[in-house]
Amino acid sequence: MSKKVLVCGGAGYIGSHMVRRLVENGFEPVVLDNLSQGHAPAVVSGVPLIRGDLLDPAALDALFGAHDFGAVYHFAALIAVSESVTAPGLYYRNNVAGTLNLLDAMRRAGVDRFVFSSTAAVYGNPQTGLLAESHPKRPITPYGRSKRMMEQVLADYGRAFGISSVSFRYFNAAGADPSGEVGEAHDPETHLIPAILLSALGNHPALGIFGDDYDTSDGTCVRDYIHVNDIASAHLAALDWMEANDGHHVFNLGNGKGFSNLEVLEAAKKVTGIDIPYRIGPRRDGDAATLVADSERARRLLGWRPQVSDIEAIIESAWAWHRAPKYGPFAVNR
Length: 334
Ligand code: UDP
Hints:
Blueprint: E1 4-8, H1 13-24, E2 28-33, E3 49-51, H2 57-66, E4 71-74, H3 81-86, H4 88-109, E5 113-119, H5 142-161, E6 164-170, E7 172-174, H6 192-200, E8 208-210, E9 222-223, E10 225-227, H7 228-244, E11 248-253, E12 259-260, H8 261-272, E13 279-281, E14 290-291, H9 296-302, H10 311-323
Parallel strand pairs: 1-2, 1-4, 2-3, 4-5, 5-6, 6-11, 7-10, 8-13, 9-14
Antiparallel strand pairs: 9-12
Uridine-5'-diphosphate binds next to helix 6 and strand 8.
């Protein structure tokens, strides 16, 4: 396989961590990003950054014509669950139509390996404790449905065109690379851990915990936080997997441990030493009460092992980034 790989969304949060892992492992990533959410400085220097959009098929053909890609990683998606409820067209256009354009450009160029960022949101409201891949897929938001649709498309493209693919269902990506060079920098920030840490720094004045009347131990939602570099390491393993396996394959990526929103807040208070102010607000649209992964399949078949499973260690790595972000709305001068 050519060592050249296309990383769509490589200037974003997870994509930028992936690009670093690829470079460290001898690959030659090329980043495609429309910079609507991503940050140019998040891309390791020396890695080509092409500003372009998945909704522009001609630009995609030009890109595939200019490079001999061995595989494509696709991180370029809109990810705010509650926004997807109010702006579904945006989500289907970007996450479904954009991904279809990408797959068709791959097909025209004869590139046949694809790694897709899916989500725990495809499961909807859990029927069981830990969620295995076989759990019913009944997403409750346009965001979850956009990702589920693409999983189904990938299975069809595998059968029709021989494109091998892996979909990773991420639980809650969190943390930052220890280098301090990349981290999470969404604007606005809607995710729990960065929202808490930005509040600790006075950069997110009205931290709200969305609902305390869920059917969980303390009434707040429970999530499974997984370090962004552990997500990246699974994506590397996917290349070997596709070398040996045709068709479409799905793997959960989580630690298998759930933390309630208030437990995350407590852990963040401990890590930062700051008594972070918050208020309990109303529920947020589209939130399931509990999402915790059974990731046995990735462990067994990919030999994947998360390296940072402790919630405080995950928050510590995020805290190091948020105190001195290199880019984003609160970037410190270098
Ligand atoms: N959450 C919250 N306050 C915030 C951001 C998030 O209470 O400012 C909650 C959210 O309602 C959910 C959990 O934190 O219960 C995780 O949300 P996040 O947006 O981080 O990830 P998601 O699970 O939606 O992908």
